[in-house]
Amino acid sequence: MDAKKTTLKADEALAIVREADEIYATKGKKVIHLNLRKDKPDKAQLLALLLGPSGNLRAPTLRKGRTLVVGFDAATYEKLFLV
Questions:
Q1: DSSP strand E in the chain: where?
Q2: What is the pLDDT of residues 17-75, one digit of tens each?
Q3: Percent composition of the chain: helix, strand, coil (DSSP 3-state, to 5)
Q4: The model scores a pTM over 0.70
Q5: Whole-angstrom Cα distance, residue 51 to residue 65?
Q6: Is residue 83 predicted with pLDDT exceeding 70?
Q7: How far apart (Å, rounded) are the C-alpha atoms in residues 36 and 74?
Q8: Spatial distance between the Cα atoms of 78 and 75, rounded to a whole number of angstroms
Q9: Residues 22/30, Cβ–Cβ less than 8 Å
């Protein structure tokens, strides 16, 4: 799914998270990693990572297996997708 072409709001974004075991979210130059099996972020924390200023799921958002990657970070992409 292309988050730039198909906008997803909060409830839809949270539904995607339910299918993930970990999240890598880029905020500025910082990459936040959450292991959802150990970490138990609340809804507000998840939405802060997933949604942009428009209230839609941030682009780019990719899923590889049970890993969700939100935002772009070259090192994270290389680590997860070029292995």
A1: 22-27, 30-35, 61-64, 67-70
A2: 999 999 999 988 999 999 999 999 999 999 999 999 989 999 899 999 999 999 999 99
A3: 30, 25, 45
A4: yes
A5: 21
A6: no
A7: 22
A8: 5
A9: no
